[in-house]
Design brief:
The structure holds two protein chains of two kinds. Chain A is mainly alpha-helical. Chain A has one domain. In chain A, about 90% of the residues lie in helices and about 0% in strands. The longest helix of chain A has about 35 residues. Chain B is about 40% helix and about 20% strand. Chain B is built from five helices and seven strands, in the order αβααββββαββα. Chain B is of the alpha+beta class. In chain B, α2 runs antiparallel to α3. The chains are: A mainly alpha, B alpha+beta. The interface between A and B is medium-sized, with 30 and 31 residues.
Chain lengths: ~60, ~200
């Protein structure tokens, strides 16, 4: 049961990581198209969310 | 004596002189075209959209914890680890959703220039959305300001819809809950009056 739970969590975090990548891509393109800078607070929030998801992905894999 | 109701917008100052050095998106302008107004949607709409995902995720975490505490799945030994990961997962989903909602709001603009109306939406996966109406080639039939619910009505948040008498554009151009609907309506009225006066001359 624990193993299935682990796989499920890993998959969920993987989907989330892909969604994160998509958001970053769209954000950068929107910034370049509109020539409006991304707000710095949002850049910080995005960076830490990325780190969080990545650490979770690795730690579940290593458990 | 004829009373002057409005000053012609073409004699207005440019957007920079009216609104200062506030950053605005890149807009291609024709010769003698000036930006009269740039607005996003009202910030209350942003708050409303950001509020519901947070509540939903909070309920999911609460339900998950309740199910685990009842030992329905027989996973009490792993309770703390899984609970911790579910918390992190919901936190990450919530933050990502909030970022998405914010960017969606931040990169969408309503622009009025002396020659056209624009709705620009840059935060899109496939290209960017661009709805443009050239005021010289299309005549406005009606401008209406309506609120979608009673709370917005109390807070002065209105949708401004412009209906055209043109077969190529049967649907109206709608400013969905802009941050200052009264200013939009004023500028549109000024533009219409200027166009009527130009037609008389």
């Amino acid at each position: 049961m624990w193993m299935w739970m682990q796989v499920l969590l890993e998959l969920l975090f993987l989907v989330l990581f892909m969604f994160f990548g998509l958001i970053i891509f769209t954000m950068r393109r929107a910034a370049s198209l509109s020539r409006l800078p991304i707000p710095p607070q949002l850049q910080v929030a995005t960076f830490f969310t990325g780190i969080l998801i990545f650490i979770c992905l690795l730690s579940i894999f290593l458990l | 004596m004829e009373r002057i109701l409005f000053q012609a917008p073409s004699k207005h100052t440019t957007y920079e002189r009216i609104f200062g050095k506030q950053p605005i998106p890149r807009i291609k302008l024709a010769p003698n075209e000036h930006i009269l107004l740039v607005q996003r949607q009202h910030w209350l709409l942003l708050l409303e959209r950001m509020f519901f995902p947070c509540i939903a995720l909070f309920l999911i975490v609460f339900l998950f914890n309740y199910l685990f505490s009842q030992n329905i799945l027989g996973m009490i030994p792993y309770f703390t680890v899984i609970q911790f990961y579910v918390f992190l997962l919901s936190l990450a989903i919530a933050v990502l959703l909030e970022i998405y909602i914010f960017m969606d709001w931040y990169y969408a603009f309503y622009v009025i220039t002396t020659k056209c109306l624009l709705h620009m939406h840059f935060f899109r996966i496939g290209g960017y959305y661009f709805d443009e109406v050239f005021l010289d080639q299309i005549s406005q039939q009606e401008i209406s300001r309506t609120s979608s619910n009673i709370i917005y009505d109390l807070l002065d948040i209105y949708d401004v819809a412009i209906y055209f008498s043109h077969i190529e554009r049967p649907e109206p151009f709608v400013f969905h809950a802009p941050s200052n609907s009264a200013a939009i309506e004023d500028i549109l009225e000024e533009l219409t009056v200027e166009k009527i006066n130009r037609g008389r001359r």
